[in-house]
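Table 4 source record.
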Amino acid sequence: MRKTINSITLALILLGLGSCKSNSDSDSDEIDLIIEGQSVVTMDAAATVIENGAVAINEGIIVAVGASDDIDARYTAAETITGEQRVLMPGLVNGHSHAAMTLLRGVADDLALMDWLNNYIFPAEVEFVDAEFVRIGTELACWEMIRGGTTTFVDMYYYGDVVADVVERCGMRALVSATVIDQRSPDAENAVDSIRKGSEFIGRWKGRNSRITPIFGPHANYTLNAAQLQATRAAANELGVPISIHVSESPFELQYSKDTYGKTSIEFYEDIGFFDGPTIAAHVIWPTDAEIPILVEREVGVIHNPSSNMKIASGIAPVTKMLAAGVRVGLGTDGAASNNDLDMWEEMRLAAFLQKVEQMNPEVLPAHTVLTMATRGGAAAIGMGDTIGSLEVGKRADLIQVAFDDVHHIPTFDVISHLVYVTDEQDVATVIVDGQVLMQDRRILTIDTAKVTNEARALAAQIHAALAERNRAN
């Protein structure tokens, strides 16, 4: 049961314990920003919701969370963003994406996974994807994610330096993967080349910007052999970075693993020592009962992608079973070529509905659990639980305001219910990452959206013409 604190009770707590202000700010009341909310959904472990609350931010860090009157009395801010008819909450964490694939949205639909990959996506990427494609596609994706309230994402694509440059400019937080795959790809010739170039990319970006974490992204156990997967893990451990990988995604993958290695996917990864380091596992639709404890013991973060899983008919992940066992489970959109959008609100709704109908039990995966998966739980799944995911003193200031003034929020009896079952990306009004305002009153501040629109349309026209020519030739 979540705890709701009114302003009087909260004021007494803060006056008694002095917990409103961080130690680092004890000598001064001057701060950068105060942002308010008619309701502040903190997503802390106690599920605290503060009515008429506010968050105080200085140098990118949350220095106080409390009743608005108390925050205003204690701090003087260079800027205050008011919160009438706004819900203030942590930014959403998209744990698995292929950002630049926004430019391949709708290129190939209604296909099985391996047909979609081998006959459409992989060939299209070799033909069309270059650094400029990745820049434009990633800018388009960041615009879409900011617009929808996503503040952190895990990306797996090509030209990691280009992706990191875009993230640095637009102000988001991201784990940027150097994709490793044993075939010719847009930025490498094979697995050995991928690992070498990925290591160089990680060396350039590790520690360069606190919002950007360079990591490795080995594709899957059917596009890399055991030795290549072990080499990727060794490189990641040597450089001190996590890995993001597709795991137990489809019946094809399970059968391939059994036929090739004599084991199911997760047992295979465990057998070769692949989980001996921080791992983010995307999809995990088909884990066996014997494999789920492995995920718990190895602290593998699992990212559930309901929309993509449904569209490609990959299956329904046993989310409730994994959560009950203690697996850290977050949410992701996957790429826009298989989703076909980057809307985390949709992922929340579908995650809840899928479990309810699959188990024929409306009580499973309730709203607060799903919201946790998109915020604090998602942050834990990608290894950033101590830094982001909840509104708590000392964490980075990644937060959003959701407008509750549209017709579908009238009336509101339960804020958490509305955030999960009612809200869509058009309701997001304000987005802040690391204390920087990226969107205010629905206006994107860090991306030239007109320029991105024109560039994306021009590039899409070239791709469309090339595909049409190919179809005529065939």
